[in-house]
Amino acid sequence: MSPRDEAAPDGDAGVPPSATPAAVRAQLLATEHWSLLASRSTTQGEVLTRISMFLTFTSASLLSAALVGQATRFSDTFITFGIVVLCIDLAIGLLTQIRVMNVGMEDLMYVIAMNRLRAAYVELDPGLARYLMAEYHDDEAGSMKTYDFLGGSTTFRHVAGSSMTFITAVNAALIALLLGTVLVLPGVPLPLAIPLAAVGGLAFAGWSLAQGYRRYSATWRNFTPLSPTPPEGA
User: Fold this and answer.
1) DSSP character for 19?
2) Long-range contacts of 10-17 (CB under 8 A, 24+ apart)
3) The whole model's pTM is what?
């Protein structure tokens, strides 16, 4: 018998069985499930809007800098204006990146919560387990199964294609542009300024991804699942 066909115990150890009828329990669980789905959808829509606003603002500001450069014949005034614009873009980008990271953790929270609700459904009717494509175990393995039903994607693909990696790449490019401009101003040769600026952007990208991984790992260290994935062969 597979782990999905096994029934979970009715309640935690030491907790007496509920006297609430099964139909009422199912209705309460479904209400909470829909609430989580609505919250997850709203959060995802909000962060995508934030990213779109940031990209629109950055595009418009860079276009404005180009127009100012033509009007001032790329004088010192243009350089000062360009640095100010890049600093503003970077500040907004960093705030957007923080929000994207927070939403990523919130999304994980929603997935864990819905996995836990599915475990409750399986407690009510163990026969449901074989029909669920999303997992009903609320540990790390269960969350990964819910994110990827068919198991065709690797962790690298998930990370590389995430909104967090995307916004990090944009901010790294802004940092590289800003560093390159600042280095060229005092007379640093362009062949040297470009590699230094690129290293600065890559260092920021690496630091951001490391921070995201550290926060993700800390989440699981501090979390105790109620319905962990059974060991292989159990």
Assistant:
1) -
2) 10/123, 11/123, 12/226
3) 0.82
Contacts with 33 (C-beta within 8 Å, 6 or more apart), sequence order: 114, 117
pLDDT (tens digit per residue) in 163-188: 999 999 999 999 999 999 899 888 88
User: Residues 6 or more apart from 44 whose CB is under 8 A from it?
Assistant: 103, 107
Give the chain's length.
234
Is the CB of residue 175 less than 8 Å from the CB of residue 201?
yes
DSSP state of 162: S
d(CA 146, CA 141): 9
Q: Where are the domains of the chain?
A: 23-221
Asked whether 185 and 79 are in contact (CB, 8 A), the reply is yes
Tokens of 4: 């999905």
Give the residue among 26, 36, 33, 92 at the shortest CA–CA distance from 62.
Answer: 92
Query: Which own/partner contact pairs does 73-77 have at CB distance under 8 Å and 24+ positions apart?
Result: none
pLDDT of 34-49, one tens digit each?
Answer: 999 999 999 999 999 9
User: Is the distance from CB of 121 to CB of 128 less than 8 angstroms?
Assistant: yes
